[in-house]
Amino acid sequence: PIHRGVLIIRNFMGRLLLPPPVAVAPFAADLHPSLTTRQRVAFQTKPAACAGCHTIINPLGFTLEAYDPIGRLRTTDTNQPVDCSGSYSPRSGPLVKFNGAKDLANYIATSEDSHAAFVEKLFQFIVKQPIRAYGPKMLSDLQRDFESNGCDIKKLVIEIIAVSAMKK
Question: Are 124 and 131 within 8 A, CB to CB?
Fold first, then answer.
């Protein structure tokens, strides 16, 4: 759940995360055989030094608990029902709650945070430069155009090429 949550936060929501203060190995499943993965992760990340980031990371990773570590669908973990509930606190707006991958995917598809992350990553992929090198308004302008064009990726690519060519 931690790795999945970090992937979602960084790549789909565009949020920055600092590296952990120390390298911590996850608790081995056989150390606490009666705990589910979710319970082990919650237990290990409960200390204050961890909780600051893990209150953001874990709830997103938990939404994908219906999948085992190699992606197979599952309904139980250590003979207990899998709990796929999770949440996310966007940059603006109230806490959003999910129950499983479908809820999370629906949110990502419509989220301002994920639209901004997508625009920024696509810009950097095409131009090979950070979007902020093209001015403080470039991201918000491209995101606004992307959303007003019904999230049309082809139009966004054309706009990125056009604005980056004009700024050189």
Answer: yes
